[in-house]
Amino acid sequence: MKLTTASAFSSSPDSRACRRLFVVLTFLLLSPLLLPAQTDLSGFWLLRVPTGDGNYREIFLDLKQAGETVTGKVLQGFRDLPISEGTFKGGKLHLVVTFRSQSQEQRRVTYDGTVEGDKISMTVLYPGRDTLTGTAERSKPEAALPPPGLPLPELRDVPGNGLARTPPMGWNSWNKFAGKVDDATVRGVANAMVSSGMKDAGYIYLNIDDTWQGARDAQGNITPNRKFPDMKALPDYVHSKGLKIGIYSSPGPKTCADYEGSYGHEEQDAKTYAAWGMDYLKYDWCGAARIYKDEEMQAVYQKMGEALLKTGRPIVYSLCQYGRDEVWKWGPKVGGNLWRSTADIRDSWESMSNIGFRQFALAPFARPGHWNDPDMLEIGNGGMTNDEYRTHMSLWVLLAAPLLAGNDLRTMSKETKSILLNREVIAVNQDPLGVQGVRVWQQEPYEVWMKPLADGGRAVGLFNRGEDTHRISASFRDLGISTGSVSVRNLWQGTSSRLDNATQFSADVPSHGVVLVIIH
Ligand code: GLA
Predict the structure, then answer these.
(1) CATH match for 43-141 among 1.25.40.10, 3.40.50.720, 2.60.40.10, 2.40.128.20
(2) Fewer Cβ within 10 Å of end Cβ, the chain: N or C?
């Protein structure tokens, strides 16, 4: 009977169609339960990306998902960046943020993730830089809120520390090594600074920039990360070479590279740096931008200026806030020996020349102990021609700018050495009069700059920003020289000549190049 029923049921065409329909409908009804539903990623996520030195970069993702489209923002370091492209398809998340860097370059960072349960495994691609991987987990939005501003001191003049009577000279790790600086590199550079003749030429400070920091210990003392195993032994080593050493921090909770800043630990950190034997501090605004207003900068920088002075150790104080809030007017008051006057430099003619040739209005603010800082040198990093690097050096020298080499001193070419080590060129920068040079003549794309020297001489740069060699003249009237007989020393050529009954000095200047002379 069973068999009969079964065969009767299966043999009827109508009932077969019915059964097919039943199966299809059941599948359609159950399918959302059988297939894993696409998760809704809307909400707040904390992405922790290990940087390889024991630290984590913390990135907050504030996502809104509608179908396969994801919008929202990424909070990277100290900036809120809107997501310009965002999709979530088949369990794969793809986000793009674009922004302008400190050096005004357009940057595009992509975040690619695979959703695994309640986590997202992510790869962050900073083009031309790092590729980092990490995991995002759901988080509370409050976690991304900046801490409150700290009470700030009354404004008062911090007594001068007597340092940097001439523009500081040395080396800084950032331009060449960025996040890859470590103990071995600094020691190697210290050795090279001596063996290459840089030390004898006056380059003394060896400055460690961002990414040396580790966590704070139970007492709140900052410790270095694993790239710097012994932050007492390293300064000892650098000092044993007859050099000085510098370190970097921020008044914010985080530095520009998202490492631990000095927020709430200003005095404690100053004491730590002094105990380690540090001779120089670069104090970089970055993370402080989320906490303090620009009008509060002076007090914020004063706080560290006073803390450094209190340590009793002579420590050069370098302010880095990209020339905001007319820092040149109050930099000396907070104890600053130098202050950045621009956004970050890059190793390109456009970046270097745009920064360097724009500094003409700041000359009145520079003087012994207090210098405008148009950022570190890129000479030898490969992005410019030697003519352009000579222009870079000549301009920085005439600007009485700090001369902080930013290349790998261990592998310098002969040309790079000849540019960084020209003693007569350096002497213009280190001239004891300490006056910043000014532009005395301009007819685009040609410029003449002049820096008065202690012995009455004048350092004169003829600059050609154009694309062809051009004859440029500097009139004695513009240079403040009375007509007559003068001696001319060409610093890059190392030649001397005389001009009798002359009214001007002229020379052929190559494209993007310079002729740098001293006229007596
Ligand atoms: C900022 C500064 C740079 C460098 C980096 C480090 O961009 O202007 O000179 O110190 O931070 O993160």
Answers:
(1) 2.40.128.20
(2) N
Q: What is the pLDDT of residues 415-461, one digit of tens each?
A: 999 999 999 999 999 999 999 999 999 999 999 999 999 999 999 99
**Degrees (nearest 5) of the Cα angle 327, 169, 414?**
130
Q: What is the CATH number of domain 439-519?
A: 2.60.40.1180
- The 10s digit of each residue's pLDDT in 56-99 is 989 999 999 999 999 999 997 778 899 999 999 999 999 999 98
Span 249-301, pLDDT tens digits: 999 999 999 999 999 999 999 999 999 999 999 999 999 999 999 999 999 99
Q: How far is CA 260 from the centre of its chain?
A: 16
What one-character DSSP code corresponds to residue 390? Answer: H
Cα–Cα distance list, 45 to 63, 72, 222 (Å): 8, 11, 28
Of the candidate CATH numbers 3.20.20.70, 3.90.1150.10, 3.30.1460.10, 3.40.50.1970, the domain formed by 169-434 belongs to 3.20.20.70
For residue 340, the ligand 1 atom closest to its alpha carbon is: 8
**Ligand 1 atom nearest to 103, measured from its CA:** 7
Domain ranges of the chain: 43-141, 169-434, 439-519
Among the listed residues 53, 182, 344, 373, the single catalytic one is 344
Cβ within 8 Å of residue 389, ≥6 positions away: 378, 379, 380, 415, 416, 419
At 106 the pLDDT is 86
Instruction: Please tell me the distance between residue 154's alpha carbon and the centre of ligand 1 in angstroms.
Output: 28
30 pLDDT more than 60: no
